[in-house]
Write a structure and sequence with these properties.
Shape of chain A: globular
Distance between the termini of chain B: 69 Å
Number of strands of chain A: 10
Helix content of chain A: 55-70%
Oligomer: heterodimer
Largest sheet of chain B: none
Helix content of chain B: over 70%
Structural class of chain B: mainly alpha
Number of helices of chain B: 3
Largest sheet of chain A: 6 strands, antiparallel
Radius of gyration of chain A: 27 Å
Distance between the termini of chain A: 44 Å
Number of strands of chain B: 0
Chain lengths: 664, 95
């Protein structure tokens, strides 16, 4: 069936080439049927790509080792679920997943916006087609997942680090985020090409941006949890280039989600928003390039490949094309309104944007510095953790503070008297929290103390926003308090969904500060019968157990854990040896306290033949707040994403007022 | 010819027919022009956006005043220009 896969991809390439050529001509010459035909080509490209994906998945399920890709990334003993996820375990499969999601999103955008934005969509179609041409070309000519060979007796297996339930969701979620950012970029470029630089492109892509941003965020958090429980070094984020590659477009998209509100509310920052959407998409391509090219040493660079030069060329073309369009349309993008005051909601959004972009560019500099230094001086100089930590604090702490300030400041301008009134309680709560923390010993780290104090300030500002809003709603509409609360959220889902996301970021900040600044680490070699004590926990090493699993030999060091006089059960850190892949993985043991959010994290760093084990034990306060933040983040995003009938009616009325062609 | 190639050929034919569908359904279109807004419609759209912005700003000002975020003094200062902006946009749309 490899021929069917190959043919389907060739068909996709032909279809998206047609979508570009026919789409450009139709939009420029204003040909209705041709524009529709180009859109149909984009829809058809999704069908042919889905056929190619189905062929690869079928080969993975059937263990068809005549496919070079299947033999390279699976083995006979690999469980079915990991054979399915091997689809994105290698380069060719990952590129196919990119194309599948891209054509799927493109098809969905065409179907959803066909009626609403006909003239805009006429230009969006060839732009989306252009991105698809690149990926389809790569899959047809450079990195085909359908290369065949004489089938070997067994496959090489899947990297053990990828044999983890997290790997079923983490890469696809990241790809949904990366690829999802193509849609706002394509609509932005469509707006520039068509000259429709009004808000229509923003209205059409609002949910796409938010959904892509949510997927990217939750994908990263799942990746962090994977690193925490699977990679086994005791942390969840190592400023690894590929981790940074996902963080950068997320930060740029976060800046865009904020600044786009200024355009909607005040008609300002049109050029800036275009630049941000270009930055976010460019960084999502750069992220894919970093993950798949193996250009930088990373725990994620599972393959070293030759696709790097193609990607660099494509990113350069995308950036040059986008900036040329912005420059060309500058006269249409000038805004008529100006910032009225430096103390206003829009001003805080502007400060937040500058900080987000500064943080993004700082990380980009750190990621690209090894490549640049190798190109210029012949030696790759890597940028280490202190660099990133310094800038995270320098830009991240003011951002955290702004998250509390922003909601308290009204649009346009604010007098000192109203600021005094709105800031009084949140500042009071923050100062009280700071004093309590100093008494509890939190003053051992000034960064930790500042983070926690700021977190208290933001929490108070969010709580007061909800409380004041509910009270005002109750006074206006009457009914129960619960009804007033839900009515408040329903009437402005984006604002209050955003506040819930802010609460998630507070949890994240508290979790990160607690688990990194206030953590305790001890290392010790133990023989069976010996004990060690760490931050109040006592660990008694009982014995070493070895058993054979379906695809690995599993060694576990059994530890009895207690705190004071109470027993907390046993932990079994160890290692798995995968004979097919000839690789060993760390299998850490974690005991979570769901009340305090603290983890006892045990690594069996080295297991010796005499049964002794080098243990590394970490006690990480508040670390579980990071994972809780993930749930709150999704909740907030879903609230903001939820369709708002009132808003839909208002928009329908606006485009109805403007005229038939705008509406059509 | 093997099964894979037959399936590939069938897929290609089906998708090409789908792409050609707009022309197959309307071989002789009376009007093949793509609807694009003229200068007047774009101007009206701009005014409609301005009107919506002004009305939204008024609603938010009202709500922020009720919640106590905007003082009485600020409310009185901001209300006038916002009302005038909304009225101007509405008048321009009516013309």
């Amino acid at each position: 069936m490899a021929e069917l896969g190959r043919a389907a991809l060739v068909l996709t390439l032909g279809l998206v080439l047609y979508a570009v050529a026919a789409g450009v001509y139709a939009a420029a010459a204003r040909r209705r049927r041709l524009a529709r035909s180009a859109q149909n080509a984009l829809l058809a490209a999704f069908v042919s790509t889905a056929v190619a994906a189905a062929v690869l998945w079928a080969a993975l399920v059937r263990r068809d080792f005549s496919f070079v890709y299947v033999a390279g990334h699976t083995a006979t003993k690999l469980p079915l679920v990991y054979r399915l996820s091997a689809f994105w375990g290698g380069q060719e499969g990952s590129l196919l997943l990119w194309l599948l999601i891209l054509t799927g999103f493109g098809a969905a955008a065409v179907l959803l916006d066909r009626r609403a934005t006909r003239d805009l969509l006429a230009w969006v179609t060839p732009v989306l087609g252009g991105v698809a041409v690149f990926f389809a070309f790569m899959l047809v000519a450079v990195a085909s997942p359908f290369a065949t060979q004489a089938a070997p007796a067994d496959g090489a297996g899947l990297n053990p680090s990828l044999q983890n339930p997290y790997m079923l969701a983490h890469p696809p979620l990241l790809y949904l985020g990366y690829v999802g950012l193509t849609i706002p970029w394509a609509f932005g470029m469509g707006a520039l090409l068509s000259g429709r630089t009004d808000e229509r492109w923003i209205v059409a892509t609002r949910r796409w941006t938010l959904a892509a941003w949510m997927f990217l965020g939750i994908g990263q958090l799942l990746g962090s949890h994977w690193a925490y429980v699977e990679v086994g070094w005791g942390g969840y984020y190592a400023w690894d280039p590929v981790e940074n590659a996902a963080l950068m477009p997320w930060l740029a998209a976060t800046a865009f989600l904020h600044s786009v509100m200024i355009q909607e509310k005040r008609g300002m920052l049109r050029v800036w928003n275009m630049l941000l959407v270009i930055l976010a998409f460019g960084l999502s391509l750069f992220g894919t390039f970093l993950t798949r090219s193996g250009v930088i040493n990373s725990i994620h660079s599972f393959t070293q490949s030759s696709i790097g030069a193609w990607f660099v060329g494509f990113i350069a073309v995308v950036i040059a094309f986008s900036l040329t369009l912005v420059f060309w349309r500058l006269p249409l993008l000038r805004s008529k309104t100006k910032l009225e005051s430096l103390v206003s909601r829009e001003a805080t959004f502007l400060y937040n944007n500058l900080l987000f972009v500064a943080l993004t560019l700082t990380i980009l500099w750190g990621v690209t510095f090894p490549i640049l230094s190798e190109a210029v001086r012949g030696t790759a100089i890597t940028v280490s953790k202190p660099y990133y930590n310094f800038f995270l604090r320098a830009f991240g702490l003011p951002l955290l503070l702004l998250m509390g300030i922003g909601p308290l400041v009204p649009w346009r301008r604010a007098s000192l008297r109203s600021l005094e009134r709105t800031f009084l309680w949140p500042i009071g709560v923050a100062v009280a929290a700071g004093v309590v923390l100093v008494f509890l010993g939190g003053g051992s780290s000034s960064v930790g103390l500042i983070t926690y104090t700021f977190a208290a300030f933001v929490t108070a500002s969010i709580v007061f926003e909800f409380a004041r809003g509910t009270r005002a709603r109750h006074a206006l509409a009457g009914g129960s308090w619960l009804r007033a609360f839900t009515g408040l959220i329903a009437r402005n889902r984006r604002r209050y969904g955003g506040y819930v996301v802010h609460a998630a970021i507070v949890l994240l900040a508290v979790g990160i500060a607690g688990s990194s600044i206030y953590q305790t680490v001890r290392e010790r070699k133990l023989r069976p019968g010996q004990t060690m004590t760490v931050a109040g926990y006592t660990l008694a090493y009982r014995s070493l157990q070895v058993k054979t699993g379906p695809n690995a030999t599993e060694s576990r060091a059994l530890l009895a854990v207690s705190r004071g006089k109470s027993s907390l059960g046993t932990l079994g850190p160890g290692k798995n040896f995968y004979p097919v892949e000839q690789q060993t993985s760390n299998e850490v043991a974690i005991r979570s306290n769901l009340v305090t959010g603290e983890d006892l994290y045990v690594i069996a760093d080295q297991i010796n033949r005499d049964g002794s084990v080098y243990f590394k034990v970490l006690v990480k306060p508040a670390v579980n707040l990071i994972w809780l933040a993930g749930f709150v983040f999704v909740l907030g995003s879903v609230i903001a994403l939820w369709p708002d009938a009132r808003e839909e009616r208002r928009l329908a009325e606006r485009y109805g007022t403007a005229g038939a062609a705008v509406r059509a | 010819m093997n099964l894979a190639l037959v399936l590939a050929a069938l897929l290609a034919v089906a998708l090409v027919l789908y792409v050609a569908r707009p022309f197959l359904r309307e071989p002789e279109a009376a009007d093949d022009a793509l609807d694009t807004p003229g200068a007047d419609e774009l101007r009206r759209l701009e005014l409609a956006e301005e009107r919506d912005r002004a009305l939204q700003a008024l609603r938010e000002l009202e709500f922020d005043h009720r919640t106590g975020k905007v003082s009485d003094e600020d409310y009185r200062t901001l209300l006038g220009p916002l009302r005038r902006g909304a009225a101007e946009a509405l008048r321009a749309l009516d013309r």
